[in-house]
Design a protein that fits this description.
By secondary structure, the chain is of the alpha/beta class. Helices cover about 35% and strands about 20% of the residues. α1 crosses α4. The model has no long low-confidence stretch (mean pLDDT about 95).
Length: about 525
């Protein structure tokens, strides 16, 4: 694979921007420059505009390599109008192609989400939303062709061998050997104004401009880019934000991993809520496209619980609509969505873009879907252009909280009918075979055959990813799901049990199968 294709991770670019003892550098400012240049050419073809008329925004999170990669990306876009949006969230950069105050033709966000400090990456947006895997594939192909053509031109038609990362040059400058100035753009102010308006309209309080007055809300931004949500949005609308934590951007992430799925991160916001006696805690990942909350009593609301809460809010205004989730959601959640809330539930595939794209496709086919959400916290509402926005998730919950409090009610009551599995585990089997994709398919076929031969197991249908099986072993029930990782030589194995000891029982029953898989460890 080439320098550029190695950086593709689904519909994002991701790589190691800082070398470590265990990881070589794979992403440089020069590589970012060629990819950004290719994005500009892609946009020109898509919009029918000339390169000089294109308006492209660039934002970044708090990572240590943000400034260097931004300089490279801006260099790659020097044939177009490039706008520096500074430290910002990924959803704000998506909104930058939609909101009239910015209305960029395209946007680039420099981020690697919750990944370690040495990683960085690029996300791309047009008015149609985030790029698809196929579109990013096209952009990386353009980058390869452009870089190769530049080498051929420099060496009189004979391109040198494929360069390594350290020998990669920048794209050539336009005539005059200077880039046009990169223009500053305060996207944070534009996005914050947009979010404040949503809250004011949603709460519709007597004090319209201060709808959160009387609410105590604490925020944990994980030292990422979403700390402004506390100051510019919540406090500005009257909320007490005392007790908020880790709002200052710090690309070393000194306090905890910025990840709403992480137990340490969730414990941090839980402690902040309880110590501050807050009404609600909100936590974001590094670039703000994922979020979760904690209730006043310390209940952590992420994964299945977050989906249940947001679905309960959806059910009030869109009864009977479909909620799309990823493949690892619990049976208890499914029962709550369809039984308690009267919604439809489509359990689809892992990968937030898969989930969101399925929600979009359902609406296009005439089936109403107002929410597509992965257990990771990537949640996208139809009314918000299916942008996976942690702040928008928080806003929906805060609006409902404010209105319920004014009525003397508790937001916790919205999910009082949700039950939980007694046990929940995930194991990750590494594939040791060279051709891991083919071997993984063989393992899945063999796993299905193994389960079919045991009356204690029943295949779950419909199922869109891997093999999902329900079990009943000596009075212990639950389900398991074996699937392929989206990108890595790994087979994740999720299991849940309705009774204590169920996970141990099913693992004992499946031990002969996994012992026979000599390509897994």
């Amino acid at each position: 694979m080439t320098i550029f294709k190695k950086l593709q991770n689904g519909n994002d670019v991701r790589g190691a921007a800082i070398a470590t003892q265990t990881e070589e550098r794979t992403l440089s400012p020069q590589a970012a420059a060629w990819i950004a240049r290719a994005f500009g050419l892609f946009l020109a073809d898509k919009t029918g505009k000339d390169l000089p008329t294109l308006r492209i925004g660039i934002g970044h999170d708090s990572r240590l390599t943000a400034a260097d990669l931004k300089e490279g990306a801006c260099r790659g876009l020097c044939a177009s109008q490039c706008f520096d949006c500074g430290l910002i969230t990924t959803p704000a950069m998506f909104q930058s192609v939609l909101l009239p105050e910015s209305r960029f033709d395209g946007a680039i966000m420099l981020t690697a989400s919750h990944l370690p400090y040495n990683r960085n990456g690029m996300k791309f947006f047009t008015a149609d939303g985030a790029l698809s895997h196929a579109q990013l594939d096209t952009i990386l192909e353009i980058a390869e062709k452009e870089e190769k053509a530049n080498r051929e031109k420099a060496s009189a038609g004979e391109a040198d061998k494929e360069p390594d990362l350290d020998s990669l040059s920048y794209p050539p400058l336009p005539e005059g050997d200077a880039c046009p100035p990169v223009l500053p753009f305060d996207m944070r102010a534009v996005y914050s104004t947009h979010m404040r308006t949503l809250i004011k309209e949603g709460v519709n309080a007597a004090d319209y401009d201060h709808p959160l007055k009387g609410l105590h809300l604490v925020v944990d931004a994980g030292n990422g880019s979403a700390g402004f949500f506390a100051f510019d949005i919540l406090e500005s609308l009257g909320a007490d934000i005392s007790g908020s934590r880790f709002l200052e951007p710090d690309g070393t992430f000194p306090n905890h991993v910025p990840n709403p799925e992480n137990a340490v991160a969730m414990q941090a916001i839980r402690e902040a809520v309880l110590e501050s006696h807050a009404d609600l805690g909100i936590i974001f990942d590094c670039d703000g496209d994922r979020g979760a909350v904690v209730f006043a009593d310390g209940t952590e609301v992420n994964r299945n619980t977050l989906i249940a809460l947001l679905a309960a809010i959806v059910a009030e205004s869109a009864p009977g609509s479909t909620i799309v989730t990823d493949s690892v959601t619990s049976d208890e959640l499914a029962s709550f969505l369809t039984g308690t809330l009267g919604l439809k539930h489509l359990r689809f595939k892992r990968g937030y873009k898969n989930v969101i794209d399925k929600g979009v496709a359902l609406n296009a086919s005439g089936e109403r879907c107002e929410l597509a959400i992965e257990t990771s916290g990537h949640g996208a509402f139809k009314e918000n252009h299916f942008s996976d926005d942690g702040a928008y998730i928080a806003v929906k919950i805060i609006i409902r909280l404010a209105r319920l409090k004014a009525e003397g009610k508790k937001i916790e009551d919205l999910i009082s009918g949700l039950s939980y599995p007694a046990q929940s585990q995930e194991k990750r089997f590494a594939i040791t075979r060279e051709n891991f994709a083919d071997y993984g398919k063989t393992v899945l076929a063999d796993f299905e055959a193994f389960c079919r031969q045991d009356e204690r197991f029943a295949l779950v249908t419909p199922n869109y990813e891997g093999v999902r099986v329900s079990y009943d072993i000596d009075g212990k029930q639950g389900w398991v799901l074996l699937r392929m990782s989206l990108h890595d030589p790994v087979m994740p194995f999720n299991l849940e049990a309705r009774q204590e000891g169920g996970c141990e029982a099913v693992m004992a029953a499946l031990k002969p199968f996994f012992d026979s898989c000599d390509g897994l460890k």
